[in-house]
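Exam revision sheet. Question 4 asks you to relate a sequence to its structure. Input first:
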Amino acid sequence: QVHLVESGGGFVQAGGSLRLSCAASGRFFSINAMGWYRQTPGKQRELVATITTGGPTNYADSVKGRFTVSRDGAKNTVYLQMNSLKPEDTAVYYCYARFGTPVVEVDPYDSWGQGTQVTVSS
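Answer key, structure tokens:
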């Protein structure tokens, strides 16, 4: 059983900054990737940013240049630094992790956090 616990959401004015954190705990073999998705009412969950164990990152076009995803492997923690926030960034942000397995025949598996609300006022 693995758990992802997010923190750092809140309310901020447009142009402001927030930093989200997500720590993975429990029993797992390895973490292949971690990242963040977000969702607004009536819409599908969408990618914000991910980072793999090797370091490559992937960002949604809408956040490039404003958001930075990073990871502390020793702490099994992923961060999302959000700068120059816009009202359209308002959403519930979900932490994501893909966990590896010791046996190649067993597929990696995904886990999600409970979500943290980010609200950006205009």
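Marking note for examiners. The chain has a mean pLDDT of 96.
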